[in-house]
Amino acid sequence: MNENKTEFEPNIVAFVCNWCTYAGADLTGTSRLKYATNVKIVRFPCTGRIDFMLLLKAFAGGADGIIVSGCHPNDCHYTSGNFHARRRWIVFRGLLDFMGIDVRRIRYSWVSAAEGGKWADLVNDTVREIRELGPYTRYREVADYIEKEENHG
């Protein structure tokens, strides 16, 4: 591992369900469980409402990794939203592969309101894995190239 990777602190964006994962993350804090502070949470009513273009925009905005997490199957507050999200995730994985984005940069998980420890483990594992992968620079490289061409073309 080179010196830059040991100093690298990844920027992680988490898109989470309000009813389960967000409540589980809150339980993590109120239970005073230790976990990495690298995650910025974006709360949605349901993972079924997450447009996966937002994940691509998170990468474009500088995210090195992403977590998508909601209710366990059959526990969705909106009955089947998490099933819709899971089906979209399967399709989205194919798009990521087509675009050359390492699918290990996105974690899809189920975390209930009672699983504060699971949320802490998910965050810590994600941060560790993204640290190992290193910073995600592909979107920044493309943006820099476009800007350079516009200024000199």
Q: Any overview of this molecule?
A:
With 153 residues, the chain is α/β, with parallel strands linked by helices. The chain has one domain (10-152): Rossmann fold (3-Layer(aba) Sandwich). It contains six helices and four strands, in the order αβαβαβαβαα. It has a four-stranded parallel beta sheet with strand order 2-1-3-4, with helices on both faces. Strand 1, helix 2 and strand 2 (39-44) form a beta-alpha-beta unit. Helix 2 (21-30) packs across helix 5. The chain is globular. The protein starts with a helix and ends with a helix. The mean pLDDT is 88.
List keywords for this structure.
globular, 153 residues, alpha/beta, Rossmann fold, 49% helix
CATH-defined fold name:
Rossmann fold
Q: Major sheet: order of its strands?
A: 2-1-3-4
Q: What does the average pLDDT come to?
A: 88
Q: Tally the helices.
A: 6
CATH class: Alpha Beta
* Spatial gap, N to C terminus: 39 Å
Portion of residues in beta strands equals 15-25%
Kindly name the structural category: alpha/beta
Largest sheet: 4 strands, parallel
When the domains are counted, the total is 1
The ordered H/E elements are HEHEHEHEHH
What is the alpha-carbon Rg in Å?
17 Å
Summed up:
With 153 residues, this protein is of the alpha/beta class.
How do the helices and strands line up, and which of them pair or pack?
Layout: H1 3-7, E1 12-17, H2 21-30, E2 39-44, H3 53-60, E3 65-70, H4 81-99, E4 106-110, H5 116-133, H6 138-152
Parallel strand pairs: 1-2, 1-3, 3-4
